[in-house]
Structures are given as C-alpha cells and as structure tokens.
Amino acid sequence: MKRSKQREQAFILVYESLFNGNDPETPELFSENVEELGEYSLSLYNGVSEKAQELDGYISGILKGWKLSRIPKINLAILRIAVYEMKYAEDVPESVAINEAVELAKKYSGKEDASFINGILGSITREE
After folding, report:
1. How many whole angstroms separate alpha carbon 53 and alpha carbon 31?
2. CA separation for the pair 91, 71 (Å, rounded)
3. Which 8-state DSSP code applies to residue 69?
C-alpha cells in the first residue's frame, strides 16, 4: 500500500480521535469495518497521538491572532500529521510532508484551507 494511502488512513484515525479521544480500539475497528490498516498508518497515528501536545505547540507558535481551538478539526488533524512527519519521520522530506498535507486538505477540506495549511507548514519549516 502506498504511503499516501496510509497517510490518509492515519488522517482519518487522527480526525476520529479529536472527537472520541485516543481510544485504543479505534485502529482495530477501522481495520475490521473499513479496510486493513497499513503499518505506516498505525505508526503515524500512534506517533501523533503520543506527541499531540508537542505538535499543537509547534502549530500554536505560528498562529498570529488565532487560537488552536479556532482551527477546524479536519485541518488540525492534517496539520498534526504533517508536523509529526516533519519533526519525527526522518525518512520523509519536509517538502513531501507539506505536499501530502495540502493534498489531504484539497480532498477533505477546501482550497482556502489548503493554502492556510501550506502557509502554517511553510512557516514551521522556515523557523527551524
């Protein structure tokens, strides 16, 4: 299974967790009822769940005049995954993490949201 597909699976799990918390059964239920999870999907989901506060700190540090609570949950899920990959996935170039996040936003959110996500992630990259 391609990484982009696995990233999309992880996005769905992270988005779900924003409503239901980090229920350990969520990945299992997804595998049973939707499709089998890829190894990278599960790794990404677990990493984002474990580092959520830290990831939110990176995102909050970029927001000017916004609170994290104002970001739509769908965009927050996308941002958390991208920032996690940028900071912790050594085999994923930052440009790939940003591009994949923008593509997820185009598919699940909207054009303006894709631009917003691109801007946030670009700012995080420039701050390093």
Report:
1. 26
2. 28
3. G
What is the residue-wise DSSP string for 67-110?
Answer: -GGGS-HHHHHHHHHHHHHHHH-TTS-HHHHHHHHHHHHHHHS-
Q: What is the pTM of this model?
A: 0.94
- pLDDT tens column, 20-79: 888 888 899 899 999 999 999 999 999 999 999 999 999 999 998 888 999 999 999 999
> Residues 6 or more apart from 75 whose CB is under 8 A from it?
105, 109, 113, 116, 117
Please name the residue that has the structure tokens 């940028």: 86
Structure-block tokens of residue 1:
């299974």
Question: Is 73 in a helix, a strand, or coil?
Answer: helix
Contact between 37 and 14 under an 8 Å Cβ cutoff? The reply is no
